[in-house]
Amino acid sequence: MATITALKLVTDDSLSQEKQLLEGVFETTGLACIAGATDTGKSMLLRDFAISVSQEEDNFIGFKLNRKSNNVLFISTEDGKSKTAELLRIQTAIVTGK
Fold first, then answer.
1. Terminal Cα distance for the chain, rounded
2. Could you give phi then psi for residue 65, rounded to 5 degrees?
3. Beta-strand (E) ranges in 3-84?
């Protein structure tokens, strides 16, 4: 197991070349967290992001989207299956105009 110091993380340019799914926002590997107060649009933002990936868009809210596929795994811990499906259908219609 290799040890990486904080100094190496800051100074090693090769470590900053992680591939980005959404440039400047999400890397292609690992976990990310979107946090905020209740009813600020976190779930809506992530549904829109999932729709953009699945619709093979090249960008999302002004950031370059580097997709390898259009597969999305969407997990909702707030809404049930039917509510999540309904919200995704509504937002997809808005995003695609269909």
1. 51
2. -105, 115
3. 20-22, 26-27, 59-60, 63-64
